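Weekly structure sync, notes
Attendees: PL (lead), two postdocs, one rotation student
Agenda item 3: pending single-chain targets
PL asked that the sequence for the first pending target be pasted directly into the notes so everyone works from the same version. It is reproduced below exactly as submitted, 201 residues in total.
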Amino acid sequence: MLFFKAILLGFAVAIPLGPIGALCIARTLQMGFAAGFAGGVGTALADATYAAFAAFGFAALASVLDGGAGWVRILGGLLLIGLGIRGWLSGGGQATPATANARTLITTAAATYALTIANPATILSFVAMFAGLGLAEDASASSAALAVTGVFLGSLMWWAILSGGVALTRSRLPAGFGRVVARLSALMLIGLGGWALIPAL
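Predicted structure, written out during the meeting:
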């Protein structure tokens, strides 16, 4: 169940179309699916990196969390709902593509990894999200690894869908697409937050 929720989390975190998403769309239009997806791979790896810091941090603090994991989960669930509401209200307008001077697939992935990892506040979001997913209740190394793998696969899944869709249509996405996916992401985060709170009711 943790693995499935982590996949949903990775998907929800990836789909808002910010500067990195706009960059991947532009690369797909210019150079095809592989170029756009390579950018997505870099972003998914960055998400997994921050997810690993958060998840294995829980594993390291397992003894401290023992007995208080229920409250941590409730707090995490509320924070997930808060992140979802903020995402809904912020909309998801047209984003300006990030700048990345990369010529090969590997350098494209490395460039988007560097751009994504440059936002250290992301780790705080993953701490809240993993608390809501219940990782604090089973803060073992194996559960942490499962959660990180799920986040990576969920994020990668979105980038494959986005790059594949753009490559197939060979056209820019509709003006309202960013708003739609931003709100889908928001609803998924709110849903995961509600799911986290159900055991406490």
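Discussion points:
- The chain has a mean pLDDT of 76.
- The chain is about 75% helix and 0% strand.
Action: rotation student to compare against the earlier draft before next sync.
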